[in-house]
Amino acid sequence: MHRLSRWVGGLLAFVVGDLIRVRRRHVVDGMTRAGVADPERTASAMYRSLGMGLMELLFAPWLSRRVQLDPRALSIIRARGAVIATAHTGSFDLVGCAAARAVPLTVVTKRLSIGLFDRLWQAWRGRQRVALVSAGQAVAAARRVLGRREALAMMFDQAPERERGTVLSPFLGQVARVDLAPALIAARARVPLLVVLARRTAAGDHVAELALALDPPPRAGRAWATAAMRQATATLDAHVRRDPEQWLWMHRRWKDAPQASPSFGADLLQMR
To answer: For 122, phi and psi rounded to 5 degrees?
Structure first.
């Protein structure tokens, strides 16, 4: 199955990234601004990783055994529940399906723009025991899920759909707007905030790394949430720089960050 996913990944990389060139210029420009070496080659590798991830999701019932879940994260979730701040790295869908077999997992998800693809994608993930809720249902779902000491996973590597409840933070050499929701929800529920990031190995195995664990203090508010999400973003930055082909650069990640004065951006970027 690993060889099949690599072959299909290569085919999809050629069709989507080289033939149709879906957001190819956007991907290469983002990598260039981040200082990624050989952005054209790395962009092709990213499209190949995306194609492999699609096949790995389809074979999730059989490939889940090749996912190594971090025992520290599992221990925390089973003891107290947790908010998982995660991102589109590695085979993120496969890792989510494997995690849902180990602990009860609810994922806050966005809808795909193409309705048929969205229905197929959501239905298949649901069959792998992943509970799915829309962003508008996140707060209500958090009360239920975290009240049962389970895990609530939220993606934090996309541009938020609003300005309220966000913070500006350095990310891959640019200023990005980051959603505070994962940290705010963790603070209100008094559960840990875990940054868990997926990585595909050269052998075709998958690792879910507990990259950061933050425990909100009593009466944690916006200041703590701001610091926590900036720290989470810095952690993701380092992860992406280590394996740039394994992050989904196709997102318009910096579209809503204000283009303020050069000194404003420079001050933020010096936070790294």
So the answer is: -65, -40
pTM value is 0.88
Which two three-digit tokens encode residue 161?
């759909």
pLDDT tens-digit profile of 53-94? 888 888 888 888 999 999 999 999 999 999 999 999 999 999
Span 7-57, pLDDT tens digits: 667 777 767 767 677 789 999 999 999 999 999 999 999 999 998 888 888
d(CA 217, CA 64): 35
Kindly write down the DSSP assignment for every residue of 53-93, as one continuous string: HHHHHHTHHHHGGGEEE-HHHHHHHHHH-EEEEE-SBSSHH
CB 225 within 8 A of CB 231: no
The phi, psi pair for 167, rounded to 5°, reads -145, 150
Q: Which of 226, 171, 233, 211 is nearest to 34 (CA)?
A: 171
The pLDDT value recorded for residue 247 is 98
Per-residue CA distances from 248 to 120, 243, 265 (Å): 20, 11, 24
Bridge-based pairing state of the strands 166-171 and 174-179: antiparallel
Which tokens belong to 182? Answer: 């994962």
Q: Which two tokens stand for residue 78?
A: 């089973």
Q: Which two tokens stand for residue 87?
A: 């991102």
Both tokens of 179, joined, read 């959603």
3-state SS of 167-233?
EEEEECCEEEEEECHHHHHHHHHCCCEEEEEEEECCCCCEEEEEEEEECCCCCCCHHHHHHHHHHHH
Q: Would you kindly state where each structural domain of the chain is located, as residue ranges?
A: 2-269
* Tokens matching residue 40: 């054209």
